[in-house]
Specification:
This protein has 908 residues and is an alpha+beta fold. It has four domains: 6-233, Metalloenzyme, LuxS/M16 peptidase-like (Cytochrome Bc1 Complex, Chain A, domain 1); 257-455, Metalloenzyme, LuxS/M16 peptidase-like (Cytochrome Bc1 Complex, Chain A, domain 1, 2-Layer Sandwich), CATH 3.30.830.10; 474-689, 2-Layer Sandwich (Cytochrome Bc1 Complex, Chain A, domain 1); 711-898, Metalloenzyme, LuxS/M16 peptidase-like (Cytochrome Bc1 Complex, Chain A, domain 1), CATH 3.30.830. Helices cover 42% and strands 18% of the residues. A hairpin with a 2-residue loop joins strand 17 (554-560) and strand 18 (563-571). The N and C termini lie far apart (59 Å).
């Protein structure tokens, strides 16, 4: 099969240069081009998105770091946000354009992305930004001095987690020479001592057009976009010195290895790692199947052997899609009252038994369905695909994502079992000990060569289409919305629109009970809702999971204050059977006793894991400080011990009784958006849920306004390398309040945006003491007696506690004293408005807004009026709102959690 190379006509650039753009391939709607300076360009139009995402992937990660450079790729990721001559304040620009941005670093690649409202101005700005910081980033000594401590702070966040520490050390022990054994976050001393000249050299070596792929997805004009790419990136010269890839080959492991980590914590962990082939290797698909066969919940062999027997509380696994031979890692959480030694032995026995007890056809098909569903969901959503595809680019080529999918579709049972016999051997595993043997088994894993022969002929499958151009203006959304109430009482809102991939989003909520009937129910409402997807009268938990995979559907169910909320994501083709499955869960739950016990064990293990975690403890203590309800009230804040007791006390009989009394439509709302037939959906909901009535009338459980209790407390969490401060302020201001708009923008300037707020500028950019610091406004949607919150937070080394407190105090004082500038106001308003545009363009977020509107009897005019108030704000109005509502730090309720008794030192 041949792909015809197409040369796009040349555009004359305004500065007298031209750049040739060659079309390389087209796969399932993604067009691949290459500039003559080596830059690859991927265009993936999706008219239904109403947003555009620009993602640039550099083929450099921790694998490329040398001696003394551990963490350099990740540190550089931070540094390119520090600015260029043409874009001196990148965080401010990102916020003012209302983007959802980030940068990430992994073994084989680094990527930067911006998702924003689909306008020509936004797209041109984003391309100009990425082209500029490809070669003109400051990478200055001054910026390094502030940023290295921020990166160190991020490093310390990982050091807080025993699970993360064990993960890093197991991977490190598994590799003798290859850099996959080194954590992407890096080595602390390398982070702190890196010379600016070394960092600049690393930047110049790898940040270049012939080592980058720019992916543009969403709504855009293809011809204009290609012209913009040529204009922005064409003049960047390809360096004369070629990039030479790494060549280290990890030798075959010649014995089982063991790592033991001893740190403060409560939840025990047992893990195992195997070396496996690289992403492009044909065996990689078989290993992906094997990973699911072993570690999936609830079908996996390890789940059945460890979690179903309640010897462990939960397990998970991951295997990065790497360019060179990688690994699969399995993690098992073991409560402190269980035997970790027994769990470790069972883990090893189950893993060893795969060679003697081969994978079955049923296991293969189930695992295949799960993986294909996950990949299908990523390929259908253009904003997700833009960043998801970076993994495959890092492994060699974007087409590997489709090739990997195709291989999973076609891999045979014989190939899966052959891979199990080949790779799942004790001497290829890192969990524990050295075991002498006279006849050692070893497996050499070779590198894939001649990648072009694999990807160049690939043409992919059927294009999923571009979807319709959907106008996200408030008036159009309201005009397209069909709303009303069914005979059974369900208030509904439906928008039929053509999405790429024929996707459908559905939100369904059922509200029942009141403060009296929900009193003294403890954990029963939450556990009841969590049991709904664990089996029905006719389907086991496994059967439900299999059906969801087959239908490529996701159904989530959760409870809050006794109310039940359901989200469903599916496709037009599978919508009716997906609705049937959802209704079966809601109408005919099985409530199997063994599933409840597993759920309780999982909840208890989660609490146990959090008993020493600063962020969890700070949030819980802050809630307790401001709790105004007596024990037993639905909104009462339970301590960890009370939560544990409440979980243990729940019985199957209580769950069934709660379901019989409380479950029914009550005050029910339904929102559905996407490729659907309105009559079909409404008829289904009318027919299936008629007669589904609760015995208890609904009356909302209110949380009336109450001023916070002024406090500034410390919680000591020994041996935690990262501290967390969280503060709150209560305001009797709803979204409908005249001052809401001013407070929303004021909080955005104080602590929102992307690294450019007052607090982020002070604590991260200037002082360099916090990885993450900011503030946000959490509005109450009720118009009367609203209980909204302003929150501030910071993550930092505990030795920087005084600096963080001083930063909060001084910035709040300055905020109250000086107000905000015209520039700050303009950037915040523009960014906030564009962020709302992005939110309306995402079906999941729009459905949430529409559901709230149904509940409160509003239309999109309510949101439009808020935006109009935001647009008309003046600095005087903002300052008046600040002085009226935002007090000095000593009037807040603040909790600080960390190892504040540590004797360690912080390098400056």
């Amino acid at each position: 099969m041949f792909i015809r190379l197409v040369v796009i006509s040349l555009f004359v650039l305004p500065f007298g240069l031209s750049a040739q753009l060659e079309k390389i391939s087209e796969v399932e709607g993604i067009s691949q081009y290459r500039l003559d300076n080596g830059l690859e360009v991927l265009l993936f139009p999706d008219n239904s998105a109403q947003t555009v995402t620009v993602n640039i992937t550099y083929k450099v990660g921790s694998r490329h770091e040398g001696y003394g450079e551990k963490g350099m790729a990740h540190l550089l990721e931070h540094m390119v946000f520090k600015g260029t001559p043409n874009h001196p304040d990148i965080p401010k620009e990102l916020s003012s354009h209302g983007t959802r941005p980030n940068g990430t670093t992994w073994f084989d690649r680094t990527n930067y992305f911006e998702t924003m409202s689909a306008t020509d101005e936004n797209l041109e700005w984003a391309l100009d930004l990425e082209a500029d910081r490809m070669v003109n980033s400051f990478i200055s000594e001054e910026d390094l001095k502030s940023e290295f401590s921020v990166v160190r702070n991020e490093f310390e966040m990982g050091e807080n987690s025993p699970v993360r520490v064990l993960l890093n050390q197991v991977i490190d022990a598994a590799y003798l020479w290859h850099n996959y054994g080194k954590s992407t976050i890096g080595n602390r001393s390398d982070i702190e001592r890196v010379a600016i000249e070394n960092l600049q050299a690393f930047y110049r070596k790898y940040y270049r057009p012939d080592n980058a792929v720019i992916t543009i997805t969403g709504k855009f004009d293809e011809a204009k976009t290609l012209q913009l790419v040529q204009q922005k990136f064409g003049p960047i010269a390809k360096p004369e010195i070629p990039i030479r890839d790494s060549y280290t080959v990890e030798p075959a492991q010649d014995g089982e290895r063991f790592v033991n980590v001893s740190r403060v914590g409560d939840l025990q962990t047992v893990s195992a790692l195997y070396h496996i082939p690289s992403g492009p290797d044909p065996d990689r698909a078989a290993m992906a199947i094997l990973e699911k066969v072993l570690a999936d919940t609830p079908s996996g062999r390890l789940y059945k052997a460890l979690v179903e027997t309640q010897k462990a509380s939960s397990l998970w696994s991951f295997s990065p899609f790497t360019k060179e031979p990688g690994f699969v890692y399995i993690n098992v959480s073991v409560p402190s009252d269980k035997d970790a030694e027994e769990v470790q032995q069972i883990l090893r026995n189950v893993l060893d038994d795969v060679r003697n007890n081969p994978v079955t056809e049923e296991e293969l098909e189930r695992s295949r369905s799960i993986l294909l569903k996950q990949m299908d969901e990523a390929f259908r959503k253009s904003d997700v695909l833009a960043t998801y595809i970076s993994e495959f680019i890092g492994a060699g080529d974007f087409r590997l994502g489709f090739i990997h999918r195709d291989r999973i579709e076609s891999v045979s049972l014989e190939e899966v079992n052959a891979a199990a016999s080949k790779y799942l051997i004790p001497t290829n595993r890192t969990v524990g000990r050295f075991i002498p043997t006279k006849n050692p088994e070893r497996i050499e894993i070779s590198h894939v060569t001649n990648l072009d022969s694999l990807v160049l002929p690939y043409v992919g499958k059927e294009n999923k289409g571009k979807g319709e151009v959907f106008d996200v203006a408030y008036e159009n959304i309201q005009q397209r919305l069909s709303s009303g109430e069914l005979k059974n009482g369900i208030a509904y809102g439906v928008i039929e629109k053509d999405n790429r991939g024929q996707t459908v989003r559905l939100n369904f909520s059922l509200r029942n009970g009141d403060v009296n009937s929900l009193t003294n129910k403890g954990m029963i409402p939450s556990l009841t809702a969590s049991m709904l997807n664990k089996g029905t009268a006719s389907k086991s938990r496994q059967a439900i999971e299999d059906e969801l995979s087959r239908l490529k559907t996701t159904i989530n169910i959760y409870s809050h204050n006794g109310n039940v909320y359901v989200t469903l994501e599916s496709t037009a083709e599978n919508l009716v059977p997906a609705l049937e499955l959802m209704s079966d869960m809601l109408l005919h739950p099985g409530f199997a006793p063994e599933e409840l016990e597993k759920l309780k064990t999982e909840r208890l293990a989660s609490l146990e894991a959090n008993k020493t975690e600063p962020q969890f403890l700070a949030q819980l203590r802050l809630q307790q400080l401001n709790n105004s309800f007596s024990k037993g009230h639905p909104l009462y804040v339970m301590s960890i011990e009370e939560q544990e007791a409440a979980i243990r006390d729940v019985t199957v009989e209580e769950v069934k009784a709660f379901y019989r009394e409380f479950y029914g439509l009550g005050k029910a709302t339904l929102v559905s958006i996407g490729n659907l037939e309105e009559d079909q959906v409404l008829s289904f909901m009318q027919e299936h849920f008629s007669g589904f009535k609760s015995k208890l009338p609904y009356s909302e459980v209110f949380n009336p306004f109450k001023a916070v209790n002024k406090a500034n407390e410390k919680i000591i969490t020994p041996d935690k390398k990262n501290a967390f401060t969280l503060g709150t302020l209560s305001l009797n201001v709803s979204e409908a309040h005249p001052d809401y708009a001013a407070l929303q923008i004021a909080t955005t300037i104080l602590g929102g945006g992307f690294l450019n707020s007052r607090l982020a500028e002070r604590l991260r950019q200037k002082d360099g003491v916090s990885y993450g610091a900011g503030a946000f406004f959490r509005p109450d949607l009720h118009e009367d007696n609203a209980h909204s919150q302003v929150m501030l937070y910071a993550i930092y080394n505990p030795l920087n506690y005084e600096k963080v407190q001083l930063g909060f105090k001084e910035e709040l004082d300055r905020f109250i004293r000086e107000g905000v500038t015209e520039e700050e106001l303009g950037n915040a308003v523009n960014g906030w408005i564009q962020e709302q545009t992005v939110s309306r363009a995402k079906d999941g977020e729009l459905s949430g807004t529409l559901q709230n509107n149904l509940y409160f009897g509003r239309t999109m005019d309510f949101q439009q009026q808020i935006e109009a108030r935001v647009e008309s704000l003046t600095t005087a109005e903002i300052h008046a709102a600040i002085k009226k509502y935002i007090p000095a730090l000593d009037q807040w309720s603040v909790v600080n959690a960390g190892d504040f008794n540590t004797t360690a030192t912080v390098s400056e």
